[in-house]
Automatic annotation (TrEMBL):
<dbReference type="InterPro" id="IPR018022">
    <property type="entry name" value="IPT"/>
</dbReference>
<dbReference type="Pfam" id="PF01715">
    <property type="entry name" value="IPPT"/>
</dbReference>
<feature type="binding site">
    <location>
        <begin position="10"/>
        <end position="17"/>
    </location>
    <ligand>
        <name>ATP</name>
    </ligand>
</feature>
<keyword id="KW-0067">ATP-binding</keyword>
<dbReference type="GO" id="GO:0052381">
    <property type="term" value="F:tRNA dimethylallyltransferase activity"/>
</dbReference>
<dbReference type="GO" id="GO:0005524">
    <property type="term" value="F:ATP binding"/>
</dbReference>
<keyword id="KW-0808">Transferase</keyword>
<protein>
    <recommendedName>
        <fullName>tRNA dimethylallyltransferase</fullName>
        <ecNumber>2.5.1.75</ecNumber>
    </recommendedName>
</protein>
<dbReference type="GO" id="GO:0006400">
    <property type="term" value="P:tRNA modification"/>
</dbReference>
<keyword id="KW-0547">Nucleotide-binding</keyword>
<feature type="binding site">
    <location>
        <begin position="12"/>
        <end position="17"/>
    </location>
    <ligand>
        <name>substrate</name>
    </ligand>
</feature>
<dbReference type="InterPro" id="IPR039657">
    <property type="entry name" value="Dimethylallyltransferase"/>
</dbReference>
<dbReference type="InterPro" id="IPR027417">
    <property type="entry name" value="P-loop_NTPase"/>
</dbReference>
<keyword id="KW-0460">Magnesium</keyword>
<feature type="site" description="Interaction with substrate tRNA">
    <location>
        <position position="101"/>
    </location>
</feature>
<keyword id="KW-0819">tRNA processing</keyword>
<comment type="subunit">
    <text>Monomer.</text>
</comment>
């Protein structure tokens, strides 16, 4: 690939989008989103999606490509986003990948392959989920793959169904069919990570949550419920959205979802850090530094052939 891609990754709330946009402006880049929930049309406030008016003319890809009723999958994203990266480089621009959804980032940067799917098998398990309930299906998974059952929340029907499907199709444990960390890289991508000290990032996350509610997150959720959000398998589980839905369903006005949203986001950040710290290709940048654009460009230049 003639134009070496640059990936800007890291935990939620660190300023990745702003850094990626500034870098793209400097080098004639185009942004490729790697945030699973920013794939959805209308999920703007709660995902901190960069508004069109603030993109400063930089093309953005893999934003607003799904309706909230559609299911986002890593495999589908991988194929579409990889095609975007290739097309950007082919026209002489620099692909700038940005996001914090761990599997989405990893699937794009590395040569990951996914177990086959069988719509008939999945439909059968989905029907059993509807008929018998998630607890019964989780017990069934435990009987055939105890490790998978231990790793998947007993309330996560979607993942339980997928695990049962994979076990039936492959005859192997679910984990054995999962893509491995350390898979060959897809391209010679320069990777920078953005982070802050935990206490500072927690303060940023609290402000971020307050801003989202002030900017109308509850109203956004209410509007999306009218477009089928409640039926969305993945969109309805997004941080902020799930908490607002739960409060509205309980007769609240959505405001009580503020604290659970912050707590859930903080917990998610811990998971992101744990995941990304395993990848030793990443050059970490201090979120408070004022020269991160130059630092990111230097990382990219260092490996350019």
């Amino acid at each position: 690939m003639s134009a070496r891609p640059l990936a800007v990754i890291g935990p939620t709330g660190t300023g990745k989008s702003a850094l990626a946009l500034a870098v793209a402006e400097r080098i004639g880049g185009e942004i490729v989103n790697a945030d699973a929930m920013q794939l959805y049309r209308g999920m703007d406030i709660g995902t901190a999606k960069t508004p069109v008016a603030e993109r400063r003319g930089v093309p953005h890809h893999q934003l607003d490509v799904l309706e909230v009723t559609e299911t986002a999958t890593v495999a589908r994203y991988q194929a579409a986003a990889a095609a975007d990266v290739e097309a950007i480089a082919a026209r002489g621009a620099v692909p700038v990948i940005v996001g914090g959804s761990m599997l989405y980032v990893q699937s794009l940067l590395d040569e990951w392959s996914f177990p086959a799917t069988d719509p008939a098998v999945r439909a059968r398990y989905e029907q059993r989920l509807a008929d018998a309930g998630v607890a019964a299906l989780h017990r069934e998974l435990a009987a055939v793959d105890a490790d998978a059952a231990a790793a998947i929340l007993p309330t996560d029907g979607r993942r339980i169904v997928r695990a049962l499907e994979v076990v039936e199709l492959t005859g192997r444990p679910f984990a054995a069919s999962a893509p491995a960390i350390g898979a060959p890289p897809r391209w010679d991508t320069a990777i920078v990570g953005l982070d802050w000290p935990t206490t500072v990032l927690d303060e940023r996350l609290a402000r971020r949550t307050d801003i989202m509610f002030a900017d109308g997150l509850v109203g956004e959720v209410a509007a999306l419920l009218g477009r089928g959000l409640r039926e969305g398998v993945t969109a309805a589980r997004a941080l902020g959205y799930a908490q607002v839905i739960a409060d509205l369903d309980g007769g609240g006005d959505g405001e009580a979802a503020r604290e659970p949203t912050f707590v859930g986001t903080r917990r998610y950040v811990r998971r992101q850090r744990s995941w990304f710290r395993r990848d030793h290709r990443i050059t970490w940048l201090d979120g408070a530094a004022t020269d991160n654009v130059e630092r990111a460009l230097a990382v990219r230049r260092a490996g350019t052939k």
